[in-house]
Target: Pirin
Amino acid sequence: MPAITVDDVLVLPRVPQLDPATTGYRPVRRLTTAPSGYEGEGFPVRRAFAGVPTNELDPFIHLDQMGEVDYAPGEPKGTPWHPHRGFETVTYMIDGTMDHQDSLGGGGTITNGDTQWMTAGGGILHIEAPPEKLVTSGGLFHGLQLWVNLPRAAKMIAPKYQDIRGRESTLLTTPDGGSLIRVIAGEVAGHAGPGSTFTPINLAHVTLQPGAQLDLPWQPDYNALVYVLAGRGTVGVEQRPIQIGQLAAHGAGDAIRVNADRNQDSNIPAMELFILGGRPIREPVAHYGPFVMNTREELMQAFEDYQKGRLGVIPAERLPHTS
Model:
Protein backbone atom coordinates (compact mmCIF):
# COMPACT_ATOMS: atom_id res chain seq x y z
CA MET A 1 0.00 0.00 0.00
CA PRO A 2 2.30 2.79 -1.26
CA ALA A 3 0.54 6.13 -0.51
CA ILE A 4 3.21 8.44 0.94
CA THR A 5 5.75 7.10 3.41
CA VAL A 6 9.11 7.82 5.08
CA ASP A 7 12.13 5.67 5.77
CA ASP A 8 12.27 6.57 9.47
CA VAL A 9 9.08 7.67 11.25
CA LEU A 10 11.09 8.60 14.35
CA VAL A 11 12.19 11.84 12.67
CA LEU A 12 8.56 13.00 12.43
CA PRO A 13 6.66 15.22 14.88
CA ARG A 14 4.75 13.15 17.43
CA VAL A 15 1.21 13.43 18.70
CA PRO A 16 1.19 13.97 22.48
CA GLN A 17 1.22 11.12 24.96
CA LEU A 18 -2.28 11.05 26.43
CA ASP A 19 -2.78 10.65 30.16
CA PRO A 20 -3.33 6.92 30.83
CA ALA A 21 -6.02 7.89 33.34
CA THR A 22 -8.03 9.95 30.85
CA THR A 23 -11.72 9.18 30.67
CA GLY A 24 -12.23 11.06 27.41
CA TYR A 25 -11.84 8.15 25.00
CA ARG A 26 -14.80 7.89 22.67
CA PRO A 27 -16.91 4.73 22.95
CA VAL A 28 -17.82 2.80 19.79
CA ARG A 29 -21.45 3.59 19.07
CA ARG A 30 -21.80 1.39 15.98
CA LEU A 31 -19.70 -1.12 14.04
CA THR A 32 -20.77 -1.90 10.47
CA THR A 33 -19.43 -3.95 7.56
CA ALA A 34 -19.35 -2.36 4.11
CA PRO A 35 -21.23 -4.28 1.41
CA SER A 36 -19.55 -4.68 -1.97
CA GLY A 37 -20.88 -3.19 -5.20
CA TYR A 38 -19.85 -1.55 -8.46
CA GLU A 39 -19.52 2.09 -9.48
CA GLY A 40 -19.31 3.93 -12.79
CA GLU A 41 -18.49 1.61 -15.66
CA GLY A 42 -17.95 -1.33 -13.33
CA PHE A 43 -15.07 -0.87 -10.90
CA PRO A 44 -15.56 -2.68 -7.55
CA VAL A 45 -16.23 -0.69 -4.39
CA ARG A 46 -17.03 -1.18 -0.72
CA ARG A 47 -19.84 1.12 0.49
CA ALA A 48 -18.27 2.18 3.77
CA PHE A 49 -21.23 4.17 5.14
CA ALA A 50 -23.97 1.62 4.41
CA GLY A 51 -26.18 1.03 7.44
CA VAL A 52 -25.04 4.13 9.35
CA PRO A 53 -27.71 6.79 10.14
CA THR A 54 -27.20 10.13 8.42
CA ASN A 55 -26.99 12.02 11.71
CA GLU A 56 -23.98 9.91 12.78
CA LEU A 57 -22.17 10.69 9.49
CA ASP A 58 -22.91 14.43 9.30
CA PRO A 59 -21.17 16.33 7.65
CA PHE A 60 -20.25 13.35 5.43
CA ILE A 61 -22.60 11.79 2.89
CA HIS A 62 -20.87 8.90 1.15
CA LEU A 63 -17.59 6.93 1.25
CA ASP A 64 -16.45 4.28 -1.24
CA GLN A 65 -13.31 2.18 -0.96
CA MET A 66 -12.40 1.65 -4.62
CA GLY A 67 -10.61 -1.68 -5.01
CA GLU A 68 -8.14 -2.95 -3.91
CA VAL A 69 -8.03 -4.74 -7.27
CA ASP A 70 -5.24 -5.96 -9.55
CA TYR A 71 -6.53 -5.37 -13.06
CA ALA A 72 -5.54 -7.45 -16.05
CA PRO A 73 -4.72 -5.57 -19.29
CA GLY A 74 -7.84 -3.97 -20.73
CA GLU A 75 -9.84 -4.25 -17.50
CA PRO A 76 -9.42 -0.86 -15.73
CA LYS A 77 -12.65 1.17 -15.75
CA GLY A 78 -13.79 4.63 -14.71
CA THR A 79 -16.94 6.74 -14.77
CA PRO A 80 -18.73 8.50 -17.62
CA TRP A 81 -19.25 12.26 -17.55
CA HIS A 82 -21.71 13.10 -14.77
CA PRO A 83 -22.93 16.14 -12.79
CA HIS A 84 -22.66 17.18 -9.11
CA ARG A 85 -24.17 19.97 -7.05
CA GLY A 86 -24.27 20.87 -3.36
CA PHE A 87 -21.21 19.10 -1.92
CA GLU A 88 -17.50 18.28 -2.33
CA THR A 89 -15.93 15.11 -3.71
CA VAL A 90 -12.58 14.03 -2.27
CA THR A 91 -10.70 11.30 -4.16
CA TYR A 92 -7.65 9.86 -2.40
CA MET A 93 -5.47 7.53 -4.48
CA ILE A 94 -3.57 4.94 -2.44
CA ASP A 95 -2.28 2.71 -5.23
CA GLY A 96 -2.56 3.18 -8.98
CA THR A 97 -3.44 6.18 -11.13
CA MET A 98 -6.62 8.12 -11.90
CA ASP A 99 -7.31 10.97 -14.34
CA HIS A 100 -9.86 13.66 -13.55
CA GLN A 101 -11.35 16.32 -15.80
CA ASP A 102 -14.20 18.76 -15.22
CA SER A 103 -16.27 21.13 -17.31
CA LEU A 104 -14.42 24.21 -16.00
CA GLY A 105 -11.01 23.00 -17.14
CA GLY A 106 -9.86 21.64 -13.79
CA GLY A 107 -8.26 18.27 -13.26
CA GLY A 108 -5.15 16.23 -13.81
CA THR A 109 -3.64 12.93 -12.76
CA ILE A 110 -3.39 11.61 -9.21
CA THR A 111 -1.33 8.64 -8.10
CA ASN A 112 0.05 7.10 -4.91
CA GLY A 113 -0.91 9.35 -1.99
CA ASP A 114 -2.38 12.21 -4.06
CA THR A 115 -5.81 13.75 -3.49
CA GLN A 116 -8.14 15.59 -5.85
CA TRP A 117 -10.63 17.80 -4.06
CA MET A 118 -13.52 19.08 -6.13
CA THR A 119 -16.01 21.52 -4.66
CA ALA A 120 -19.05 21.06 -6.89
CA GLY A 121 -20.93 23.97 -5.31
CA GLY A 122 -23.62 25.28 -7.66
CA GLY A 123 -22.85 22.67 -10.30
CA ILE A 124 -20.18 21.03 -12.42
CA LEU A 125 -19.67 18.09 -14.78
CA HIS A 126 -16.69 15.77 -14.36
CA ILE A 127 -15.22 12.43 -15.36
CA GLU A 128 -12.82 10.06 -13.60
CA ALA A 129 -11.01 7.35 -15.52
CA PRO A 130 -7.76 5.39 -15.52
CA PRO A 131 -5.17 6.73 -17.98
CA GLU A 132 -4.76 4.88 -21.27
CA LYS A 133 -1.41 3.46 -20.13
CA LEU A 134 -3.04 1.74 -17.15
CA VAL A 135 -5.87 0.41 -19.31
CA THR A 136 -3.31 -1.10 -21.65
CA SER A 137 -1.02 -2.58 -19.01
CA GLY A 138 -3.40 -3.34 -16.16
CA GLY A 139 -2.14 -3.06 -12.59
CA LEU A 140 -3.13 -2.29 -9.02
CA PHE A 141 -5.92 0.19 -8.29
CA HIS A 142 -6.92 1.25 -4.79
CA GLY A 143 -8.41 4.48 -3.53
CA LEU A 144 -11.19 6.24 -1.66
CA GLN A 145 -13.89 8.67 -2.66
CA LEU A 146 -15.58 10.74 0.03
CA TRP A 147 -18.52 13.12 -0.32
CA VAL A 148 -18.49 16.07 2.10
CA ASN A 149 -21.72 18.03 2.49
CA LEU A 150 -21.88 21.79 2.14
CA PRO A 151 -24.09 23.93 4.41
CA ARG A 152 -27.13 25.61 2.92
CA ALA A 153 -25.31 28.94 2.66
CA ALA A 154 -22.56 27.37 0.52
CA LYS A 155 -24.59 25.01 -1.68
CA MET A 156 -24.42 27.30 -4.71
CA ILE A 157 -20.90 28.68 -4.39
CA ALA A 158 -18.61 28.72 -7.42
CA PRO A 159 -16.96 25.34 -8.10
CA LYS A 160 -13.33 24.91 -7.05
CA TYR A 161 -10.61 22.30 -7.63
CA GLN A 162 -7.67 21.44 -5.37
CA ASP A 163 -4.79 19.25 -6.46
CA ILE A 164 -3.07 17.92 -3.32
CA ARG A 165 0.13 15.98 -3.87
CA GLY A 166 0.91 13.18 -1.42
CA ARG A 167 4.17 14.86 -0.41
CA GLU A 168 2.16 17.86 0.83
CA SER A 169 0.38 15.80 3.49
CA THR A 170 1.46 16.53 7.05
CA LEU A 171 3.24 13.47 8.45
CA LEU A 172 3.15 12.58 12.16
CA THR A 173 3.82 9.58 14.37
CA THR A 174 2.86 8.37 17.83
CA PRO A 175 5.18 8.63 20.87
CA ASP A 176 6.52 5.10 20.32
CA GLY A 177 6.85 5.47 16.53
CA GLY A 178 4.35 2.67 15.92
CA SER A 179 2.31 4.57 13.35
CA LEU A 180 2.54 6.86 10.34
CA ILE A 181 -0.24 9.47 10.33
CA ARG A 182 -0.88 11.33 7.07
CA VAL A 183 -3.02 14.42 7.71
CA ILE A 184 -4.79 15.28 4.45
CA ALA A 185 -7.17 17.95 5.74
CA GLY A 186 -8.14 19.58 9.00
CA GLU A 187 -6.00 19.38 12.12
CA VAL A 188 -4.70 16.49 14.21
CA ALA A 189 -3.02 17.31 17.53
CA GLY A 190 -2.35 20.88 16.35
CA HIS A 191 -0.84 19.83 13.00
CA ALA A 192 -2.82 21.02 9.95
CA GLY A 193 -3.15 19.23 6.63
CA PRO A 194 -3.02 20.91 3.20
CA GLY A 195 -6.68 20.50 2.19
CA SER A 196 -8.88 23.61 2.31
CA THR A 197 -12.42 22.83 3.51
CA PHE A 198 -15.66 24.79 3.68
CA THR A 199 -17.00 22.45 6.36
CA PRO A 200 -14.58 21.95 9.30
CA ILE A 201 -13.34 18.36 9.02
CA ASN A 202 -10.33 16.12 9.66
CA LEU A 203 -9.06 13.46 7.24
CA ALA A 204 -6.12 11.18 7.98
CA HIS A 205 -4.68 7.96 6.55
CA VAL A 206 -2.89 5.99 9.27
CA THR A 207 -0.55 3.01 8.97
CA LEU A 208 -0.49 1.17 12.31
CA GLN A 209 2.23 -1.42 12.80
CA PRO A 210 1.35 -4.88 14.21
CA GLY A 211 0.93 -4.69 17.97
CA ALA A 212 0.96 -0.87 18.00
CA GLN A 213 -1.60 1.38 19.69
CA LEU A 214 -2.94 4.67 18.33
CA ASP A 215 -4.26 7.24 20.83
CA LEU A 216 -5.37 10.24 18.83
CA PRO A 217 -6.73 13.48 20.34
CA TRP A 218 -9.93 14.53 18.57
CA GLN A 219 -12.04 17.67 18.66
CA PRO A 220 -15.01 17.04 21.01
CA ASP A 221 -17.44 18.95 18.74
CA TYR A 222 -16.57 16.74 15.73
CA ASN A 223 -17.96 13.29 15.02
CA ALA A 224 -15.41 10.48 14.69
CA LEU A 225 -15.33 7.61 12.16
CA VAL A 226 -12.64 4.95 11.73
CA TYR A 227 -12.66 2.82 8.57
CA VAL A 228 -10.28 -0.12 8.13
CA LEU A 229 -8.61 -0.26 4.71
CA ALA A 230 -6.46 -3.31 5.52
CA GLY A 231 -5.61 -5.56 8.43
CA ARG A 232 -7.37 -6.13 11.73
CA GLY A 233 -7.27 -5.02 15.36
CA THR A 234 -9.52 -3.47 17.98
CA VAL A 235 -11.17 -0.08 18.37
CA GLY A 236 -12.08 1.85 21.50
CA VAL A 237 -11.08 1.19 25.09
CA GLU A 238 -13.68 -1.58 25.04
CA GLN A 239 -11.48 -3.27 22.40
CA ARG A 240 -14.15 -4.06 19.84
CA PRO A 241 -12.67 -6.33 17.12
CA ILE A 242 -12.50 -4.59 13.72
CA GLN A 243 -11.10 -5.62 10.35
CA ILE A 244 -10.85 -4.65 6.69
CA GLY A 245 -14.07 -3.22 5.30
CA GLN A 246 -15.54 -2.27 8.68
CA LEU A 247 -16.44 1.18 10.01
CA ALA A 248 -16.57 2.25 13.66
CA ALA A 249 -18.81 5.23 14.42
CA HIS A 250 -17.90 6.76 17.79
CA GLY A 251 -19.82 8.48 20.53
CA ALA A 252 -18.82 11.60 22.44
CA GLY A 253 -15.32 12.23 23.78
CA ASP A 254 -12.01 13.88 22.93
CA ALA A 255 -9.77 10.95 21.92
CA ILE A 256 -9.81 7.87 19.66
CA ARG A 257 -8.06 4.58 20.39
CA VAL A 258 -7.19 1.83 17.89
CA ASN A 259 -4.94 -1.21 18.42
CA ALA A 260 -3.46 -3.33 15.62
CA ASP A 261 -3.32 -7.09 16.20
CA ARG A 262 0.19 -8.45 16.62
CA ASN A 263 -0.52 -11.16 14.05
CA GLN A 264 -1.75 -9.86 10.68
CA ASP A 265 -2.23 -11.90 7.51
CA SER A 266 1.02 -12.78 5.73
CA ASN A 267 0.26 -10.43 2.82
CA ILE A 268 -0.68 -7.46 5.07
CA PRO A 269 2.37 -5.79 6.67
CA ALA A 270 0.33 -3.32 8.79
CA MET A 271 -3.16 -2.17 9.69
CA GLU A 272 -4.36 0.69 7.45
CA LEU A 273 -6.99 3.16 8.68
CA PHE A 274 -8.93 6.07 7.20
CA ILE A 275 -9.93 8.30 10.11
CA LEU A 276 -12.35 11.15 9.55
CA GLY A 277 -14.62 13.47 11.45
CA GLY A 278 -16.16 16.90 11.24
CA ARG A 279 -18.43 19.45 12.83
CA PRO A 280 -22.02 18.41 12.07
CA ILE A 281 -23.97 20.82 9.84
CA ARG A 282 -27.33 19.77 11.33
CA GLU A 283 -29.43 20.77 8.33
CA PRO A 284 -31.97 18.73 6.35
CA VAL A 285 -30.36 16.52 3.70
CA ALA A 286 -32.08 15.75 0.38
CA HIS A 287 -29.81 13.37 -1.52
CA TYR A 288 -30.53 11.67 -4.80
CA GLY A 289 -27.99 10.45 -7.32
CA PRO A 290 -25.27 13.06 -7.94
CA PHE A 291 -26.97 15.89 -6.01
CA VAL A 292 -27.02 16.72 -2.29
CA MET A 293 -29.38 19.54 -1.39
CA ASN A 294 -31.64 20.57 1.52
CA THR A 295 -35.09 20.03 -0.01
CA ARG A 296 -36.82 17.88 -2.63
CA GLU A 297 -37.63 21.04 -4.60
CA GLU A 298 -33.92 21.90 -4.78
CA LEU A 299 -33.18 18.39 -6.04
CA MET A 300 -35.78 18.77 -8.79
CA GLN A 301 -34.25 22.12 -9.74
CA ALA A 302 -30.80 20.52 -9.90
CA PHE A 303 -32.03 17.84 -12.31
CA GLU A 304 -33.78 20.46 -14.44
CA ASP A 305 -30.66 22.64 -14.53
CA TYR A 306 -28.56 19.64 -15.55
CA GLN A 307 -30.95 18.66 -18.34
CA LYS A 308 -30.90 22.24 -19.65
CA GLY A 309 -27.10 22.39 -19.67
CA ARG A 310 -26.74 24.88 -16.82
CA LEU A 311 -24.23 22.75 -14.90
CA GLY A 312 -21.61 22.89 -17.63
CA VAL A 313 -20.65 21.56 -21.04
CA ILE A 314 -18.42 18.56 -21.74
CA PRO A 315 -15.12 19.87 -23.20
CA ALA A 316 -14.35 18.88 -26.78
CA GLU A 317 -10.86 17.62 -25.88
CA ARG A 318 -9.49 15.57 -23.02
CA LEU A 319 -6.90 17.29 -20.83
CA PRO A 320 -3.28 16.17 -21.18
CA HIS A 321 -1.98 14.18 -18.22
CA THR A 322 -0.23 16.10 -15.44
CA SER A 323 1.67 14.95 -12.39
